[in-house]
């Protein structure tokens, strides 16, 4: 009898967890997060540069079209640049991703997102010296990522995800014949709140 009751309870819990993370059209999720980021430069004369480690943070927002697709946007503070043994370039951006987000798996706890991210330069320093006037104030990047939501309740989950960005616009303002593009990726953790 105990085995029968246990099996019935597990079946009910199984169906509850299967449906718990599925979202409907019009649902909105907000996810404040922090992220460990590694960034570097692509382009001309970028071969000698090493990656620069930093922290990023922001708020992601998903608007659901159905249980599989959402539009992910938000506002992120990303510190990018590069570093080698002697020099460090630090470029900070306010980024606004515009990504399609595909939720997959039987319980839709996994997601894969991709799109574009416009970014606005807030700070540019080379070895502590302000170089903002030599950098383009705007960049455009291709953004992508994959994540997993660990459900705590139907309205709250913990998000673990990997995000990447590859710049497609030259960040050099004054040296037009030298192309420098930002690139970076990071692992983050956040809380997902269903509104």
Can you offer a commentary on this structure?
The chain has 195 residues and is mainly beta. The chain has one domain (2-194): Porin (Beta Barrel), CATH 2.40.160.20. The chain is built from 1 helix and 10 strands. Strands 1, 2, 3, 4, 5, 6, 7, 8, 9 and 10 form a 10-stranded antiparallel β-sheet that branches. Strand 8 and strand 9 (156-167) form a beta hairpin. The longest helix is centred in the N-terminal third of the chain and has 19 residues, at 2-20. The radius of gyration is 20 Å and the shape is elongated. The relative contact order is 0.21. The model is unreliable at 4-19 (pLDDT under 50).
Helices and strands, with pairings:
Elements: H1 2-20, E1 28-43, E2 52-64, E3 69-83, E4 88-95, E5 98-104, E6 110-126, E7 129-130, E8 138-153, E9 156-167, E10 180-194
Output the radius of gyration. Answer: 20 Å
CATH class: Mainly Beta
Number of domains: 1
The description of the largest β-sheet is: 10 strands, antiparallel
* Helix-strand string: HEEEEEEEEEE
- Which fold name is given in CATH as the topology? Porin
Terminus-to-terminus distance: 41 Å
Beta-strand content estimate: over 45%
CATH architecture: Beta Barrel
- How does the helix and strand content classify structurally? mainly beta
Number of continuous helical runs: 1
Q: Given the C-alpha coordinates, what overall shape results?
A: elongated
Round the mean pLDDT to the nearest integer and report it. Answer: 89
Please count the beta strands (DSSP E, at least 2 residues each): 10
Fraction in helix: under 10%
Regarding quaternary structure, how should these chains be classified? single chain
Weakly predicted, low-confidence segments: 4-19
